[in-house]
């Protein structure tokens, strides 16, 4: 990914000269600390659009069936939009290289829990608009197939620490999510984190055995009486 970013920097230098080199250098420096902490699991939006999937860092969730739509900008930017797996979710990073906005990124995906587990909450723990240039608030709407929904906005780093949003619901094995990240005016680097929690759910067979055990115990108790 660093190589990809440097290729874009070199292309700017060859086209726009010294001024572009200065701007690109600023972006590389600002991106550096974040890039240093990324592992090999990071993927681009373009890769996910092509059918890639990934696991959360804790291995408990799988994210798949991604589809992205660019509204108000060219979808060639998908090559530089990044997705970083997190412990119980992922972070979407828009704008390293070319700043994000104005426009909207519409996305759908499926999140699935592992065997004997159910997803019982969703949250947006982190939302930020960094290096904003004449930008309106960054807005995120999140809607799931079970009826759960979230909405949040952030206008710049002045909002830190961002309070976060969360919603609880009955455990489900998987969710289909529709999410829209919008910046109506201006541009900046947008970061949106999606997180989920899971709970252990007894398998159907285990539940049946448990019920049979209770029934047998009751029958035995009645006979002894």
Concise summary:
The protein is an alpha+beta fold and 225 residues long. 27% of the residues lie in helices and 44% in strands.
Question: Structural class, judged by helices and strands?
Answer: alpha+beta
Nearest-integer average pLDDT: 80
The number of helical runs is 4
Count of individual beta strands = 12
What percent of the residues sit in helical stretches (DSSP H or I)? 25-40%
Strand content: 35-45%
Cα gyration radius (Å): 22 Å
Q: Which word captures the global form?
A: globular
State the order of secondary-structure elements, H for helix, E for strand. HHEHEEEEEEEEEEEH
Uncertain residue segments: 6-38, 206-221
Determine the N-to-C terminus distance.
Answer: 73 Å
In what order do the strands lie side by side in the largest sheet?
1-4-5-12-7-10
What does this structure look like?
There is one protein chain. The protein has helices spanning 2-16, 18-36, 45-49, 204-224; strands at residues 43-44, 54-55, 61-71, 82-86, 89-94, 103-113, 117-133, 138-144, 149-154, 165-172, 174-183, 187-200. 27% of the residues lie in helices and 44% in strands. It contains four helices and twelve strands, in the order ααβαβββββββββββα. Strand 2 (54-55) and strand 3 (61-71) form a beta hairpin. The radius of gyration is 22 Å and the shape is globular. The longest helix is centred in the C-terminal third of the chain and has 21 residues, at 204-224. It has 225 residues and is of the alpha+beta class. Strands 1-4-5-12-7-10 form a six-stranded antiparallel sheet. The N and C termini lie far apart (73 Å).
């Amino acid at each position: 990914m660093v190589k990809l970013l440097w290729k874009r920097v070199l292309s700017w230098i060859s086209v726009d000269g010294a001024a572009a080199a200065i701007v690109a250098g600023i972006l590389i420096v600002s991106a550096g600390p974040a890039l240093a902490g990324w592992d090999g699991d990071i993927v681009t939006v373009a890769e996910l659009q092509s059918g890639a999937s990934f696991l959360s860092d804790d291995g408990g969730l799988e994210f798949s069936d991604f589809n992205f739509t660019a509204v108000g900008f060219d979808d060639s930017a998908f090559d530089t939009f990044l997705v970083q797996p997190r412990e119980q979710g992922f972070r979407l990073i828009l704008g390293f290289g070319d700043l994000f906005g104005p426009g909207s990124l519409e996305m759908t995906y499926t999140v699935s829990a592992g065997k004997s587990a159910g997803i019982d909450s969703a949250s947006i723990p982190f939302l930020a608009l960094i290096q904003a240039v004449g930008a309106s608030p960054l807005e995120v709407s999140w809607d799931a197939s079970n009826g759960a929904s979230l909405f949040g906005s952030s206008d710049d780093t002045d909002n830190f620490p961002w309070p976060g949003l969360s919603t609880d619901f009955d455990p489900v094995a998987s969710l289909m999510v529709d999410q829209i990240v919008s910046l109506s005016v201006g541009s900046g680097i947008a970061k949106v984190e999606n997180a989920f929690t899971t709970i252990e759910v007894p398998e159907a067979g285990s539940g049946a055995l448990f019920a049979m055990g209770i029934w047998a115990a009751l029958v035995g108790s009645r006979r002894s009486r």
